[in-house]
Task: inverse folding
């Protein structure tokens, strides 16, 4: 167990290190560089001045050397300055990370709950009417473009019905808990619905399989009630593969969060990365992407641990 | 079968772009700011968009791009996945370990942020001419390539698993002892037998790729105007929802219908190939 944890943590650290170099190089390939932006507002800059500036900031050095400098500073907790926010990267990033965590966790819990409910109901009678409806819903969830779903929600609930706010995290001058919660309803629902489809299919498949197992037949033969059979005997076993897959997809929620945050103007990590890339804010984009990768890696590690915890037959 | 029928209808719809434009007598690229957001009329059956262009014809043209990206990108991704999977499975050992760790690493990445970075790259810094970098063709091929670069992992894993099983089959061993070289065995004996389990995965990839293209183009990092795609027709969606809500619905609805049809097709194929699998 200890060995497994160590090995996996080491592996994750390696992936993060490799990714930091890849992302660093990719960011370097984006249009413009910090000097271009600096001189853009200063038409009097001569080529000599530009070359001198590049030398001062080390931009004339080979990429590997620049990366080494960055890595050294980053390992000491210095991720540089955000150009568009005029603040240290971490000061901008941490509140955004918190905002994204709120969005991702609430919608994750919501979609897991919904998926278990629908998946179990569908699995009770495979091929029945309820199963057909749930399957259609699940397919719709997998196939819907998330940004368009957000658009439809805005159209219905904000523009037509004026029932819910379409953007932001709180009303100016209010900002109480109820107000903040109202602003979260549409983003959370959008993100949750987009994931429920996939999750429902997992639950349904796992439940159908376990409901056919011998121990369920035994339980039925000894006269256990149907509710007890489904909830205690079958569901507990079906949870093993399902929880793992769900935890594995938690990181994948990040892509959905990026879209949702952009659509509903939520100041989270996804929108921050998107704006940083649009605004040539290289430090912020780089650090944001690394943290997104880190969140994914951690959730994958937790998924592996959950697997061993749920199924004692698997020794890690 | 229903999904095949719907896909056929969609193909007819997008193929009709040029004839319909000709018949209506409209130019889908010509902007006319005086007839912005015109309501449906005999000349413009679905009205016009924010630049006064015919919405119906642009939906058809945009569909051509979206579907083409879906198919081409899946093809490129499949080639990448097949190569990595078959090499990994056939040679095994060290090479397999390295390639599979690489694949695992790819799977662990947040795809959309990565795609946005790739979509924002300056092609001239990669050695392409400035003329190509700013052309419409570059925008198109860029989307095809970058989506393929991130979406090959599922295919690679499936191919590897199938190759591991096939490698020990008698006919493959026979080919090996009779002196067949690795490249020949992989292409002539293994790949043809990998095809069947792959068809389902490839079909599902098409659906996913269409979704990736649409969101990238929507965010402004994919297909860029004036070329229409279902994604970039929603670019100014925030404006659309208040001024012309119908225009915010059409492109997304078409993406939705296409992807759901593709996914149902994949599901159908799955059951056709493996009747024991769960309905």
Result:
């Amino acid at each position: 167990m200890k060995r497994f944890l160590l090995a996996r943590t080491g592996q994750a650290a390696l992936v993060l290190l490799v990714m930091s170099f890849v992302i660093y190089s990719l960011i370097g390939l984006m249009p413009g560089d910090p000097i271009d932006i600096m001189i853009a507002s200063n038409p009097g800059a001569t080529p000599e001045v530009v070359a001198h500036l590049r030398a001062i900031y080390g931009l004339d050095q080979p990429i590997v050397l620049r990366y080494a400098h960055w890595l050294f500073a980053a390992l000491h907790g210095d991720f540089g300055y955000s150009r568009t926010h005029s603040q240290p990267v971490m000061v901008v990033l941490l509140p955004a990370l918190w905002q994204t965590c709120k969005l991702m966790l609430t919608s994750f819990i919501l979609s897991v709950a919904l998926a278990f409910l629908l998946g179990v109901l569908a699995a009770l009678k495979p091929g029945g009417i309820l199963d057909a409806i749930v399957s259609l819903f699940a397919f719709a969830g997998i196939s819907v473009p998330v940004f368009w779903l957000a658009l439809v929600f805005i159209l219905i609930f904000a523009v037509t019905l004026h029932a819910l706010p379409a953007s932001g995290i709180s009303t100016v001058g209010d900002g109480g808990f109820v107000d903040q919660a109202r602003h979260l309803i549409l983003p959370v629902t959008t993100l949750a619905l987009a994931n429920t489809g996939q999750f429902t299919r997992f639950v349904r498949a796992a439940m159908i399989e376990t409901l056919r197992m011998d121990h369920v037949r035994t339980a039925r033969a000894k006269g256990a009630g149907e509710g007890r059979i489904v909830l205690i005997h079958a569901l507990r076993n079906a949870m093993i593969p399902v929880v793992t897959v769900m935890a594995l997809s938690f990181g994948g929620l990040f892509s959905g969060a990026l879209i949702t945050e952009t659509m509903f103007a939520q100041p989270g990590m996804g929108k921050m990365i998107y704006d940083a890339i649009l605004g040539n804010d290289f430090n912020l984009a780089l650090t944001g992407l690394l943290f997104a990768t880190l969140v994914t890696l951690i959730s994958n590690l937790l998924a592996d641990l959950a697997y061993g915890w749920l199924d004692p037959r698997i020794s890690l | 079968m229903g999904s095949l029928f719907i896909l056929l209808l969609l193909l007819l719809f997008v193929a009709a772009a040029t004839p319909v434009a000709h018949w209506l007598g409209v130019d889908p690229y010509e902007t006319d700011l005086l007839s912005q957001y015109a309501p449906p009329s005999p000349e413009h059956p679905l009205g016009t968009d924010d630049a006064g262009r015919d919405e119906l014809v642009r939906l058809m043209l945009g569909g051509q791009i979206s579907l083409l990206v879906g198919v081409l990108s899946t093809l490129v991704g499949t080639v990448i996945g097949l190569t990595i999977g078959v090499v990994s499975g056939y040679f095994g050992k060290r090479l397999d370990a390295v390639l599979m760790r690489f694949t695992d690493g790819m799977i662990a990445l947040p795809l959309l942020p990565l795609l946005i970075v790739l979509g924002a790259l300056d092609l001239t810094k990669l050695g392409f001419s400035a003329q190509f970098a700013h052309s419409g063709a570059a925008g198109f091929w860029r989307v095809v390539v970058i989506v393929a670069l991130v979406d090959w992992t599922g295919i690679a894993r499936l191919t590897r698993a199938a190759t591991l099983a096939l490698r020990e089959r008698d006919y493959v061993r026979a080919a090996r002892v009779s002196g067949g070289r690795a490249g020949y065995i992989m292409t002539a004996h293994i790949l043809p037998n990998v095809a069947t389990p792959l068809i389902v995965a490839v079909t599902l990839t098409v659906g996913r790729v269409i979704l990736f293209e649409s969101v990238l183009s929507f965010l402004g990092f994919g297909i860029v105007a004036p070329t229409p795609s279902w994604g970039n027709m929603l670019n100014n969606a925030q404006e659309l929802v208040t001024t012309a809500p119908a225009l915010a619905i059409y492109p997304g609805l078409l993406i939705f219908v296409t992807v759901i049809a593709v996914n149902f097709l994949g599901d159908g194929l799955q059951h056709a190939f493996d009747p024991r699998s769960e309905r």
Q: What stands out?
A: Chain B has one domain: 55-273. The CA atoms of residues 15 and 60 of chain B lie 7 Å apart. Chain B has twelve helices and no strands.
